Amino acid sequence: MEPLIAAAPAAADLVKNTGTATFMADVVDASFDQPVIVDFWAPWCGPCRQLGPALEKAVKEARGAVRMVKVNIDENQDLAGQMRIQSIPAVYAFKDGRPVDGFVGALPDSQVKQFVQKMAKLAGPKQSPVEEALVMAKEAMTAGDIGTAGDIYAQILEAEPTNVLAIAGIARVQIEAKDLEGAREALAQVPAEHAGHAEIVAARSALELAEEGEKAAGAFAELEAKLAANPNDHQARYDLSIALYAAGDREGAVDQLLDLIRRDRKWNDEAGRKQLLKLFEAFGFSDPLSMDARKRLSSILFS
C-alpha cells in the first residue's frame, strides 16, 4: 500500500524565499493550510541581519506549525509597494489569506519566539501523521480488514518502533491471523515502562485467551455433553466459555462465565470472575458487551 506516514518537514523546508511572482502561492494560498510569517528585508539592513536568524530559529522550533517566507525588497520593489512597506525589517503573519498580525523593527529573541508561538497556535490542534494512521488502522480492525490494519501498524512501527498503540495493534492483528508466536514476539518489544498500558494489557489478555482457545478448540460436543449430564460441572462450563471465545462467539463466552459465577462464584478461587475480567480487558472496558456484562455481573454478585 502507499506510504501513509510522510517524514516531518525538514527544517530547510520551513523557510523559503519568495517574490512578486510567487507571493500569492507561497503566502496567501499557503496560509489557508497554516500560518505564514513574511519577513521583508534587504541585504544592507543591519537590524534585518539580527532579526532574520532569530525568526528562522523560532519557526524551525515550532516544527511545522508555522512557515516563514522571506522577501528581499530590493529585488521585489513592486511587492514592497503593494504591501506598503515603509521601514524594514517588517514582519507580517498571514492566516486564511489575510494578514492577522505583524511588527516593524528588530525585537529581542524572546519576543520573536513569543510572536512565532502565538502564530503557531492559530493553526489549532492537528493530528500528527502517526496519529492519523493509528485512527485508520483502528477503523480497519473494526471493519475486519486485518490486512490493511497490519500494513498500517507496520508503517507506524517503522517510523516509531516503540509506539505502544502500534505494538498492541500489530499484536491484535497477529492474534486475529492466528499467528500467536508473532503476537508474542510483538508484545516482547514493549518497553518496560509501558507494560501496564491499557492497550498492552488488553492485547496480552487477548493473546492468553487465544492460547487457551487453541487447547479447547474442537471440544464443543464433549463439553456440551458433560454439561447436559451435570449442569454444575463448573470446569466444563469454564472450558466451554474458552472454546466459544476461540470460535468468535463473544456473547456465548460471557454468558457461560456469568452462569458459572451465578452457580458458584467462589469456585476454583473465583476463576469465573477472573476469566470474565480477562475478557473485559480483551474487549475493552468501554465495549458495549463489556458494559452490559459488568451490569449483569454486579446484579449476580450483589443479589
Automatic annotation (TrEMBL):
Pfam families, sorted: Thioredoxin (PF00085), TPR_19 (PF14559), TPR_20 (PF14561)
Source organism per UniProt: Stella humosa
A GO BP entry: cell redox homeostasis
SUPFAM superfamilies (alphabetical): Thioredoxin-like, TPR-like
Key words, A-Z: Disulfide bond, Electron transport, Redox-active center, Transport
GO molecular function: protein-disulfide reductase activity
Every Thioredoxin domain range: 2-121
Positions of transmembrane segments: none
Gene Ontology annotations for the cellular component aspect, listed alphabetically: cytosol
Protein name per the record: Thioredoxin
Annotated family: Belongs to the thioredoxin family.
Lineage: Bacteria, Pseudomonadati, Pseudomonadota, Alphaproteobacteria, Rhodospirillales
Domain of life per record: Bacteria
InterPro entries linked to this entry: Thioredoxin (IPR005746), Thioredoxin-like_sf (IPR036249), Thioredoxin_CS (IPR017937), Thioredoxin_domain (IPR013766), TPR-like_helical_dom_sf (IPR011990)
